[in-house]
Queue: 3 jobs
Job 1
Amino acid sequence: MSRTEDIKRIQELSKSLLEHVQDEPFLLRHISQLRECICFHENRYYVMNDPLIADVEFDQLYKLLEKIEATHPTLVTPDSPTQRVGPGIAKQFNTVQHLVPMLSLENSYNADDLLEWDRKARELSKLDELQYCVEPKFDGASISLVYENDLFKRGATRGDGVAGEDITLNLKQIKSIPLSAPFSKYGIQQAEIRGEVLMNKKSFQSFNEQLIEQNLPPLANPRNAASGSLRIKDASIVSKRNLEAFIYHIAYLHFENNEKEILSHSNSLEMLWELGFRSPVQEKKVFKGIQAVIAFCKDFEEKRDDLPYEIDGLVIKVNELALQEKLGMTTHHPRWAIAYKFKARQATSKLLQVEFQVGRTGSITPVAKIQPVPIGGVTVASISLHNQDFINEKDIRIGDTLLVERAGDVIPYIVKSFPELRNGNESKIQFPTQCPVCKTALIKPEEEAVWRCPNDLCDAQVVERMIHFTSKDAMDIRGLGDANIRKFHELGWLKNIPSIYELPFDELKRMEGFGAKSVTNLQEAIEKSKQQPLYRLINALGIRYVGETTAKTIAQAIDHLLDLSKMNLDELQQIEDVGVKVADSIHQYFSKKENIEMLKGLESLGLQLNSIKKQSSGGSLSGKTFLFTGTLNQLKRSEAEQMVEDNGGKILSGVSSKLDYLIVGEDAGSKLEKAKKIASIQILDEDGFLKLIG
Ligand code: IVH
């Protein structure tokens, strides 16, 4: 999409527009250039993943356009970047016919399947060897987009393949889908293109964390999150879901003049990229002959978890388009493509019994104990059933056969039960009326889905609060895992959070199983945690609805933790992302005398209650990008990454030309090899990094 001369022109244009913020006649004369700049930068950011201006500068340009359009509504064009966020509430989704039916792919699972498919394709095409293009099989929701006269006209779900639901408004919220694309440059008047909408793993994880914080059951996998998001009636909610779209197929083209011939599938991916779509040009690989494809497929399955998004396999396509046409299709599938599916991340197992666990906020969670079953390399024996509604909705009974899924790093999830496999010995799950630990009568606030133990001093809650406090994303006290916390609680050493900082180390040294070295390590880890930044402490307190993300915005908004005790509900809601529910929960927490006493106690023990503000710009690493690979010796990976961010730098997820520094630990692998081939990347070891950061 962007050639050097375009980049230079746009950079200069962006600069000059920003210099004329107050000059309305100038801006009016240049409104189409302003739009062009914004579209260009959206493409660099959302499609190419390689932005060329700072976020604040982009926001300035965008706000400028919004302002001019507000005062001159007649100048608004349908493909203006401001038009993504329309009025946006759909009453229902209309059914629309696809211009060309959306076919599905035949599946293959092993080398033999691929050999057989290749044999047939060679036989039909009368060739000895075929060229194949291999690309990820994106595990999301499939979409079909129609562009007419360069404008994004309509987008639809797959539906039954012939007709789908019109979800145009929702798709306009996805920034990697351009509102206009210069098809006319190729003489194309109308195009129907296909792709997949995804939620990447990171966004999915934080989306699920938010659901859990609200006591809602999390979703099984990013695919469900993506397809569910596309069916939301209010487009403004969709825009907050961080969805992405990959476009991998041109289904139909109508030329208004000379037809430009596209020769191969890989050419069509390149053309889509040129047009501004996020097609898998970088991810695709072209091979001669099926043997090389088979080797690649086997190798790639190992790397599945390294990608930032979920894939469930690879798609192998005959590269030459003339050959694709010759091979044609069966009633269901094209003969020129096949999916190579990776090992399933689902399995069936029996529900043996249900235990009820008490969480740190007193919530009672039913946990299914199942016949242990391996899924994706991990044995699953225990799975959350979330709450009574979840159990009712899925109709789960003790003795049932269940379908269990474990997608990537995602927590295992019960997809469904199989009532048809029951033999009559199954029993309903009985919810307790008393706390299984302290026997206090349980309560269920009307608006909530979970039962709760209202006793703050319930042993289970006390222990869970300490486990959360010390956990990796909170105060990160290594060596004080769940088992030790439980043991020390039983011994009477750990009664509450402050007691973590008063552990009797001398007695501990005399205990069986604790060597002098491990006790010293633990002592050091506890001491070090006192310096953790405030947002970690806020997260560690376990205030309801306040997870890591909210903790970060709160820490940015205050100077000292106890400032929160002086704020009323209105003031709390002024903090970014803090709504009524969160404000109410924070207010309740800080109205309790015992909590204030505890926090003062922690401060006198040396914990950091002051907020050290992160600089939004500046810092010695400002504008520089980093990636860590291999095992670091002196620093934890998370610590090193935090240091980069604290100094204004940015962490990237992969090696590319936009990477400035690769920091290499022990046993570094393919990332190092790749980085060596890109001259602009500086490769440093851990010492070099520490020196750089000063
Ligand atoms: S090609 C006519 N390529 O997998 C061929 N499909 O049953 C059109 N999918 O419905 C499909 N990644 O939703 C193709 N790189 C990729 C894909 C892909 C994911 C989905 C697509 C399709 C299903 C196969």
Note: Residues 103-105, 135, 137-138, 142, 194, 196, 248-249, 315, 334, 337, 339 surround 2-(butylsulfanyl)adenosine (CB under 6 Å).
Job 2
Amino acid sequence: MAYADLYARWKADPEAFWMNESRAIDWVRAPSRALFADRAPIYEWFADGLVNTCWNAVDRHVAAGRGSQIAIIHDSPVTGTVHKITYAELQDRVARLAGALAAKGIAKGDRVIIYMPMIPEALEAMLACARIGAIHSVVFGGFAAAELATRIDDAKPKAILAASCGIEPGRIVHYKPLLDGAIDLAAHKPDFCVIFQREQEVAQLVEGRDYAWHAFQYGVEPADCVPVEGNHPAYILYTSGTTGQPKGVVRHTGGHLVALNWSMRNIYGVDPGEVFWAASDVGWVVGHSYICYAPLIHGNTTIVFEGKPVGTPDAGTFWRVIQDHRVASFFTAPTAFRAIKRDDPEGRLVGGYDLSSLRTLYLAGERADPDTITWAQDKLGVPVIDHWWQTETGWAIAANPVGVELLPVKLGSPSVPMPGYDVQVLDEGGHPVPPGTLGAIAVKLPLPPGTLPTLWNAEERFLKSYLDHFPGYYETGDAGYIDDDGYLYIMARTDDVINVAGHRLSTGAMEEVLASHPDVAECAVVGVADALKGQVPLGFLCLNKGCDRPHADIVAECVKLVRERIGPVADFKKAVVVDRLPKTRSGKILRATMVKIADGETFKVPATIDDPAILDEIRAALAGLGLPAR
Ligand code: COA
Ligand code: AMP
């Protein structure tokens, strides 16, 4: 068995395994060893190597004579355009942007925030930062000004690169006013901003602070690649945690290059030159790893898709893109397939396209329900591979390693651990449990190359969030079990993170916003089941004594407040007013019980509940919202 041999080979000598894989990367100075454990449990990979990510993702392919290969295809049904960029053109565009940034004082280690829609310039901005050793932090366009401000204050960028607007079906997303608002809100101010003006909306520039994308680059000296240490941060990507303060996941340069390059052949089964498509957004980790870096590092063609699975113009868009660009390997979130299935249940549109180039479909970002997988398999006639990972890991913890060996697919399981990950299911005391037993999923330290070494400026929080609970392990925050064949099953989060349409969101962050409403005394947000999006947030509001305003008004204001503070992506549209929240005698809100009631699941009334009668009040309030739905 090729997979079993590979995994055993890694386990027998992780150092040799990763040193060997590191040879696929061009180093300015090769690392002397793979793992640096002197500060354990903080581990680093390839720390003393010297390398440049942009060189490996762009220049080396041009140097190898592949400059005329298409690097990026921008396929944008929302603007009705398709635009292709070769590796040689990409090199030129990135070197000029990097040169302009360097000319304005951006140097190795400086932070640059990128707030852009799905356009090639977003990838060029990321690569330009990598070229000069600047550390980028991409912020998803569906976040509101206040969320952007939080990230500005944490990352303290010298520059912000943005576009004038994004395009959502039926509306323009006004990026520039959002950016201006965020800079006003933030205590830290960037030295300058560079704005890519789109014809759908031309933004007003602030004199002396903002530069237009092209004028900014006029007449500058293109920048060469600056070698950085293997443990130099390539980027910071903020992700949701338990509180409103997002966690700044740090990615080191060397391990990132090695792991992503390894994954393209071994997990995604593609060869250099083939077309790889991840339909996600550059604002998420999937976009970082599999729209931008991995396909380019590996010499593939990547697709920047600016559209939705349905409605742009119809549920056949994905098939059109696969046909037009001869996509070999396709990656998206299960929600996208649920949306397509809802619009085209028989999969009639599939038949209208030539999908002969497609070999495999990959799903991640949320639990892939068996119905969706079966539907996709039936309609597309290719293996559908669920794989499990997180912003923190940057690449798959568990997958079906198609490029090594296609293992039998088990519905509901993202298959088996990848080399580098010693995955264990633990009980509360930190002891491994037998197969089939539910527990907290943890990974034995060290984590492999490409995963987070720490949180930005928050090492204590890193230790507390991930390493303290189970000493010697990384706590994933997911619960599940391993079956007798070693297949993993991911069942739920163990924290207050919910997953809405493949987007990771913090209920704690939403609660902080709701609590700021003047009429709200106490609140709770939980994630309830949703047929399309997997989960959606639902708010419970307890009002201040004496508040006699109409509940519908307060709910509407709360919905608006979350949209304004966190952004449309939070998808917070439902809330109910209740007299009290169910709590334990020690005052802990019984969120899991509220979820069970909303989802119509049977449950045992917790023995620690303060007053069981409250559960009937919750039931009645939810019935008013039509919950449970089934
Ligand atoms: N910029 C601004 N707003 C955005 C945005 C962006 N980049 N992305 C989403 N939004 C907005 C949407 O317009 C929507 O706003 P609305 O409340 O005014 O309708 C809101 O955020 C919620 O978006 P979403 O959850 O995506 O719902 P949707 O109804 O627009 O689309 C799907 C539903 C299933 C089509 C869509 O969620 C989808 O394509 N999901 C795939 C998931 C995915 O790619 N996940 C990435 C991780 S792998
Ligand atoms: P993110 O950091 O946004 O990628 O979200 C990571 C979380 O999404 C994980 O911790 C899981 O809870 C969930 N997730 C991602 N992929 C899967 C999957 N294949 N199956 C089940 N849950 C998943």
Note: The pocket of coenzyme A (ligand 1) is lined by residues 141-142, 166, 168, 173, 280-281, 284, 286, 308-310, 333, 335-336, 339, 365, 500-503, 568-569, 571 (CB under 6 Å).
Job 3
Amino acid sequence: MKLWGGRFTKETNQLVHNFNASIGFDQKFYHQDIRGSIAHVTMLTKQGILTNAERDTIIAGLTGIEKDIENGTLVIDGTEEDIHSFVEANLIARVGDVGKKLHTGRSRNDQVALDMKLYIRDEIGAVDELLFSLLKELHRLMKENVTTYMPGFTHLQKAQPVTLAHHVGAYFEMFKRDRSRLADTKSRLNYCPLGAGALAGTTYPLDREYTASLLDFTGATLNSMDSVSDRDYLIELLSAFSTIMMHLSRFCEEIILWNSNEYRFITLDDAYSTGSSIMPQKKNPDIAELVRGKTGRVYGALVSILTTMKGLPLAYNKDMQEDKELTFDAIDTVKGCLALFTGMISTMTVNASVMEASAKNGFTNATDAADYLVNHGVPFRDAHGIVGQLVLFCEQKGIALDDMTLDEYKAISPVFEADIFDAIRMETCVTKRNTLGAPGPAVMEEVIRRNEIYLGEK
Ligand code: ARG
């Protein structure tokens, strides 16, 4: 049933119908569409625009439609233009003429704005759950690896020793911020556009604040033209999603490196790896690579909607229908990536001894050797030069700083004494880094305690 056939004398060209229709994708929010309609008729009745009996008939019809869609007896096919027409046509078919009163004081422009907001609100909740599960998994990894020493890198060159707990803790912070970005987006979008009509409000005495409260909004939007043409919340959502994907992608890049034959810091579980059709020895980190790869898709969605919106005059324009497929795809992508990534890291094995050996062999304790000299009165710049000579000596012999003899140390600087060996042990180097946020176990335990409180507050 067309909602707008009255002033037309010709049937719509079939290709035009297909090109224009959104039912192929907006059927995703049939639940939100029905929920919004129930709130709308409830408000219309409170305002004396519909009778109680009309309201009850319409709500029974809408509830029946939802139930039948869910149990599969009512199939959303492609004949209607969009989900709004589909629900209204079905309602009229079910309850008769009273169904034609549903759309009183409403336009599809404020209706679609409402549906999308309700849908996004629900999906933000689902993505937040997945982020929370990931944080719990990272928390477990941190607790188990407070003394798992590994090299910390800058420029992908071994720099100073850290622990796996510290490294994972960096991602804990990132995903924590991602949750708060989503919460921000949700609080800013949480104003109800229904009642804005097509663009200029309506002449019926609607109680917009009441509709807003029925649908758990903070309040009603304050400008009807903005209400139907605002897609800022999708831009914010896709920006927050892009940041989540960027974080996942960086972590994936590290997982891929760590799982390689060269690093062997971790071993991905067989259940989360795939093989090669030709090379029998291969066990590939495809999941990590795919998550890294899908990041581009989500960035694409953000750039796409920014571009769609940039030239639009007020108020509603059909261009805005383009907001849906890319947003839905980004939601599916982010949810899939978060779930798979969490599964992948919860099943991987940490090769602690390999990580520690790598930290030792990469001169990550060179700064500590310089600090030792400084603590014995050598100016830092001189200490830097002396340790540079130690490193050169070790490189020529193919050994670590820990493997030099005291005589060899003394030959380069007489300041060194036997306690240098304790000063440059991995454990000492890490334990001494005890400023808040550093890898030292005492402060790491403090951060873990704070994270525990954060996770408990959910
Ligand atoms: N399918 C449309 C969209 O997604 C719904 C709003 C249509 N409004 C209109 N006046 N054609 O944006």
Note: The pocket of arginine is lined by residues 22, 26, 82, 108-109, 112, 318, 320-321, 324 (CB under 6 Å).
